[in-house]
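REQUEST ID: PR-0412
SUBMITTED BY: lab tech R.K.
PRIORITY: routine
TASK: structure prediction, single protein chain
INPUT:
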Amino acid sequence: MNTRPFPKTTAFLYNKDIHVHTERQPSVTYSIGLYFDPQTETEIRRIWQIMAENAIEEYLYSSANRPHITLTIFEDLDTNKAENLLRDFALRHTPFPISFQAIGLFPSTAAIFLNPVVTGQLLNIQRELHNLLVPFAALPEFPYYLPDQWIPHCGLAIEMPLKNLLPAVKTAIDNLVLPLNGEVIEIGLTSFRPVVHLLGYRLGGEQYCC
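STATUS: complete
OUTPUT:
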């Protein structure tokens, strides 16, 4: 697995002098998320499909995304370190229940989402993972995934035209039966965009991806 990108160096020869030009490669953004049991995943993907079929929001359904709760986001993550830390992290934790009981929205980004019941276990998992990985990555500019500022959520529709926000909420209300109870069974590392699944572990078990 590749580590964080290094600068690309090119040498030019002018009049017998070598001039070295260093070009900084674009940073890569990484996301680490919790993934659900098959029944819960299927139900959330059904809502994604309805959103897409009604031309409300197509990205989540048409991309390689899976329904998830994002724990943290980093830039230029040392993926070799992350692989070892995630493997050990997954072995220390076992699957646990999750209950989505509300629909929320982020008006500034025109996104709606499922709100899980926020438990001490969920907060502790997020904080533990963030603290493990932060020495090996650069934090993005937005603070939403920092401990004590994190709002756990599972996206139903994101980055829509603002006029689609209320139709998206109505679509979710009309097609979801809450509470939606399930189980968190996996943890995975992706890069985006586009979404690429890089690594995944079953909680308490073996690697399943990639």
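NOTES: Confidence is low (pLDDT under 50) at residues 1-24.
REVIEWED BY: pending
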